[in-house]
Protein 1
Amino acid sequence: MPAHILQEISGSYSTTTTITAPPSGGQQNGGEKLEKNPHHWGADVRPELKDDLYDPSYQDEEGPPPKLEYVWRNIILMALLHLGALYGITLVPSCRLYTCLFAYLYYVISALGITAGAHRLWSHRTYKARLPLRLFLIIANTMAFQNDVYEWARDHRAHHKFSETHADPHNSRRGFFFSHVGWLLVRKHPAVKEKGGKLDMSDLKAEKLVMFQRRYYKPGLLLMCFILPTLVPWYCWGETFLNSLCVSTFLRYAVVLNATWLVNSAAHLYGYRPYDKNISSRENILVSMGAVGEGFHNYHHAFPYDYSASEYRWHINFTTFFIDCMAALGLAYDRKRVSKAAVLARIKRTGDGSCKSG
Ligand SMILES: [Zn+2]
Ligand SMILES: [Zn+2]
């Protein structure tokens, strides 16, 4: 652990670890190099994880733009899903109230499976969760069908470590469409495979629940993302099969996908950069609303180890509210939080001078 890391336990939240940056920057540890590299500034207290921190030493080699190799199966399936979802919108007025409520609940739970689960817990290790919560999150994550947690976290760590290079799976330098959904419709750039394959994933390999989901992912996603949400409204309260399929399944799934993808596209292209103007990710309130709190993206890339993924806690951030509720129940603990002093120092040092989020 770097020498400049100071750790203190906050008095107000007994299971929150507050991370405090040194008053004079990163000079205590390695001096010059860290001082010149604002991305390593701030501190990190996760012994189990280091490979989600930005590595500015990796840059693209000069050369022609990468050739696109289309994956037609994904293109066709994604097109059919979105056609089904668009048709689902026209069916909403004819749905029973229970169906709309069920689809909304399914959206919130599956979104939490991504934000509180794959993202803040498993990709970044920003807090710890006891078995009942991890069970809930792995089920919720399977409902969301965005690849299994192991693959999601590997792509996401590469996105943070090699941001805006060809080794970033959804490199936003390749445009809105590519970073939104295009990256799922073409073969991965060789740099993604090469650099992603070398990331330290030992923490997830050692987690039985994550490996269990990976092993049984196909039947799991078919059941949780497609079969169950279609059968429940149809069987339990007599919704028509078509409404169930197109609204509760296709529309709900497409909404969760697009809300998540907006974090990779819109929140890397539109918004302020109050914490670090040298990185592309931005603060985007609209994205936060759709992605239950994940739109404070300039902050998140500046401090990927903060469990709130935002300078604030419950401000347009349902995921933080959820994790705090779980902490109150004793199911979440050791929530990592960056200190106000470290945030203010970072704003002064690398911010773009714009207003803060919210
Ligand atoms: Zn990002
Ligand atoms: Zn992240």
Note: The pocket of zinc ion (ligand 2) is lined by residues 119, 123-124, 156, 160, 300, 304 (CB under 6 Å).
Protein 2
Amino acid sequence: MSGEQTLKAVRGSFLDITRTVEHPEEIESALRFIEDGLLLIRDGKVAWFGEWEDGKAQIPSSIRVRDYRGKIVVPGFVDTHIHYPQSEMVGAYGEQLLEWLNKHTFPTERRYQDAEYAREMSTFFLKQLLRNGTTTALVFGTVHPESVDALFEAASQINMRMIAGKVMMDRNAPDYLLDDAESSYLQSKALIERWHKNGRLLYAITPRFAPTSTPQQLAMAQRLREEYPDTWLHTHLCENKQEIAWVKELYPEHDGYLDVYHQYGLTGKRSVFAHCVHLEDKEWDCLSKTGSSIAFCPTSNLYLGSGLFNLQQAWRKKIKVGIGTDIGAGTTFNMLQTLNEAYKVVQLQGYRLSAYEAFYLSTLGGAHALGLDHCIGNFAAGKEADFVVLEPTATPLQQLRYDNSVSLVDKLFVMITLGDDRSIYRTYVDGRLVYERT
Ligand SMILES: [Zn+2]
């Protein structure tokens, strides 16, 4: 195909953030809003981005321009923590973390030993992401390698930027969900060889959390990390007080929960720790020093009664934070709804989450937390063309509030507060239309 045939042109109002920041006050100066803009895409990447008037002469007459004026085009949302095999158990009633795992999660995850079932649910899961405008996610599979094969196969069909891994879990769960240190190593290794950097797919070494891994298994996770230093590490940390007490019982020789991961070499760049609701001072410092990232999962933390994540402290400590929906303890795939809850979580702690900060965390900031800001997160030339067309006035109430909001920041805040999957008008992955709201 000639370059001209693979060129695509999108017109509309565009909003993105041009650079990563260390303080939330810097976000506004990095914000870019182009009321009448043009995005040119070639071979799935941003070829040119700017004002319509400045760029329109580059559009060959044979190209049909996708005209989204009246809508707002933003970079695809980044979900930094989610469990695909828990899609079918969202909204399981009544428990906090440890009981919730035993009663609801483990029986559900058992089904993913069936490769065909895993394939069906992978398709369902990806559709849910796309209809909610999420174009990149860091994803837990189950202990079964089949679950990860199924997800990666489905994601590779639309060339989605996705990070995932097989759960490593060799104790404190039902027998039917346990691997062992050796098999978890060998299975993870085979998956890394098959999928890591295969197209846009990336692998995360995924011990579920310290209580379900023996020291021998964490040593195997460390070995994988040493053998494949450019993979990711994805796990849970300090979500629930009972969980923390349990880790201290299981690993008495360690200096707290995070020290378990740290001593096995599992902190560092491309290490993403979900929750971090109850961190001690030394743990904030360790995350900061090692360049580790946090996935802030507001709907999950509220739903399981885990507690309130201290976002302000993360900024103070210069720790990268992204937003996680944490399906199925989280209650929505939708990033706008998740940001709405994030606002309330920090409001309860006397901190105000601005619309710009929320937008940052769910796009470029989330990409930064995943170590992917060089390839996704905004419309910089050369980046991968994953984006969402938002409909700011999808309901009568949204229309009313949007019309009586004057500034961009107010309009964006209303979109976050009142938005949901109806706000997602189109989703593009790799420059191609992959979801169309009907
Ligand atoms: Zn989780």
Note: Residues 81, 83, 236, 274, 326 surround zinc ion (CB under 6 Å).
